[in-house]
Every structure is written in structure tokens, then in C-alpha cells.
């Protein structure tokens, strides 16, 4: 039953695999219920912004790449473009000039779409699931390559030069049993991300990106379209090839989950006061209860990630700025993804991760309160953060499913 179950400390976090899996089993149904609620199922974005880095290679024309948008007239008045437009127009008569919308604040880790842009649309996320679309080849490869190139920081900052360490993050030695490629060695040294000498902040940066990549790959493999049978379903070989045979990619998804979960738990007080404005007071109240229910079910667990260990050593300010600016670039690279649906989920999940980073690193704890900082998060950031957490939770669920499929495959007839 426990075949290939991961164990031991998750590197660079303050928790182990068992704790994450136990939090996951306590919270999964709650986050699933939350993302189906009215506030969380709609996301606003510009799907057609030009790639700022290279000439677009053109959009994928497969039917599965396209996104169904939502008729705005069905949405609460407060969310609509015309309400937004009215707010952003100068009240001074004939010389109507839209105010310039600054798409990011100093604290933001993402460059957001301008909400007043005519190309901004609402999308019902439940109608557009992230799954296999057939988007592949040089266009997808170029985007991933550009994302990983953002991993190259200018600051040469090695462990030996005074990077902070968290006493709880040292990995446990590997003595994993010989289980075959899937999930083997998960708690041991990863070896191939070259992190032996690299500072904590850079490792964290890389692990978040790699964890996001793993999560996207898992969704592709979990909802895979088999062209020969014409059926959708989990594809074990896809999972083994892309994820299972690479222990560090598995580690990184647990790592990313631990970081996002930490940000979510830190928002308990803020979200208790947050005006969800779904156009229905009862629905607003229900949303608050669902969130509180979700966060309080993690309360008995130890903190999964210690953000206070980051950006403490020499050069910490410049390291922080580089970290934030590189992540901002990743959010801009998402406009180069050549498949609408992949772009939708890529933009949403980088916004979700960026929101988690902002909550963890850009503010002191006392500023995470609605009373003192009501504009901490906008509508889209809240939606993106919880949907990203849900995507990561679904990936952990899928890993358990693939673990079982793998065990069944290896079992004697
Ligand atoms: P890729 O996944 O393209 O990986 C490229 C290289 O990166 C690999 O060869 C490997 O060296 C390295 N790598 C792979 N995984 C990791 C990891 N976890 N950590 C570190 N390094 C790694 N396709 C869909 O069908 N549906 C989608 O929703 C979708 N969304 C996408 C979103 C984005 C932002 C991008 C850029 C692409 C998306 N794609 C999607 C395409 C998909 O991610 C793959 O690029 C495509 O399926 C081809 O996969 P591949 O096996 O060639 O390797």
C-alpha cells in the first residue's frame, strides 16, 4: 500500500513529505470546494498580449488549445469592465483621458495585465481545465528555456559567502529502498540541479519554477488524450518519463506546495475581512467560511516553510531585487506561450506563485491585515493564489494515483 511513498525532509523547507501528504489529505476536498465557488471560478486576463521578447511563432490551432471566454453581463456588476472603465476615467467633462494604469507596485513579483485594456476577458476556469492540449515542439521548448534562463542571477552568492541556512532544512541522508525509477531516492540528495554550493535564495527560485513545470506536466499526463482510443485519461508512461524518473522534479513539486501553503495560511486574518463582492451577500459569507475552513484545517501542522531565513545575509537587498525582477520576467514570458489554454494557466499560476512570494517576502507580518493594508491583494491575485494551490494539490493527488498504477503494473500477475 505504501509502495514508493516518499519520506524524510523536503529540502529547503521546514517539513517532511509525510506532513505535506497529511495536510494534503485534510485539505484537498476543501480547496476543491473553494475553487468551484463563484468568486474563485472566474479569472480576468489578456490572452492576446504580444510576446515582449521575440516574434510570436503563432498560436496553436488545436481545438484543445482554445479558451472559452465568459459573457461579462453574467458577472456581478462590481467586476465588469464598464464599472472599471468608469472608475478609471477622469471626471472632468470632455477631455476624458483614461488614467495610466500602473501594472505593478514595487512589492509585486508579477507584471499584471492592465485591467482597463479592451482585450481583457473573463474566463470560467471550470470550463477550461488545464490538461493535454498537444502544444509542444520548438515554441513550447523556447518558452521553458527562457523561463529557466531567468534562473541565472548576476549576483555570485555562494553558501560559503554567508548565505543564511535554516537549521531545519538540511536533508536527511538517503537510504531509500530499491524501488525502480518511480519516486526512488526522493528524500535523498538530488544531484542534478547543481545546488550543492548555491545559496538558499537561488535554490528556492529554481525549485519554484521547476515545481511549477512538474505540476503542469503532471496535469498533462493525468488528463492525457490518447489519439488511438479517442479517450481522455491518466497516462502512466507520460508521468514516469517526465516526472517519476526524475526525483528532483518530484521533490520540487512538494517544495512548491509547501511554499504556497505557507503563504495561504498567513492570509487567514486578511481574508476574514476581504470583500468578496460576488453580488450576493450569502455567497460572500459562504466564501469566507470555505476559506476559513480550509486554512484552519492546516493550523495544527507545523509551518511548512520558514520565509524568515531568506534574504538575511550579505547583499540581501540586491539579491531580493534580482529575485523579484527575474520572477517578474517569468510572468512576462507567459505572453509568449503559443497556446491559449496553456497561456491562461501559465499566467494564472505565475500570478499565484508571485502572490505567494509577495505575501511571504514583500511585507512585514503586521501588514498582512485588511485593516492596515486593504489593497494588499487585488481580486485576480486572490483568485490566482487559491487556484494555484488547488493545481498543486491536484498534482499531489495525481502522484498518489500514479504511484498506485505503477505498483499495479509491477505486481506479479
Ligand atoms: P518540456 O516539458 O517542454 O520540458 C523541456 C525541458 O525542460 C525538458 O527536456 C527537461 O530538460 C526540462 N524539464 C522538464 N521538466 C522539468 C522540471 N520539472 N524541472 C526542471 N527541468 C525540467 N502542454 C499541454 O499539453 N497542456 C498545457 O496546459 C500546457 N501548458 C504549458 C504552459 C507553459 C507555461 C508552457 C511553457 C508549456 C505548456 N505546455 C502545455 C507544453 C508542455 O509543458 C511541454 O512543453 C510539451 O508537452 C513538451 O514536453 P517535453 O516532454 O518535450 O518537455
UniProtKB/TrEMBL annotation:
One of its GO terms (cellular component) is endoplasmic reticulum membrane. Its cofactor is FAD. The keyword Disulfide bond applies. It is found in: Endoplasmic reticulum membrane. Its main location: endoplasmic reticulum. The keyword Iron-sulfur does not apply. Keywords: Disulfide bond, Electron transport, Endoplasmic reticulum, FAD, Flavoprotein, Glycoprotein, Membrane, Oxidoreductase, Redox-active center, Signal, Transport. Disulfide bonds join 60-65, 339-342. The active site is at 339 (nucleophile), 342. May function both as a monomer and a homodimer. This is Uncharacterized protein.
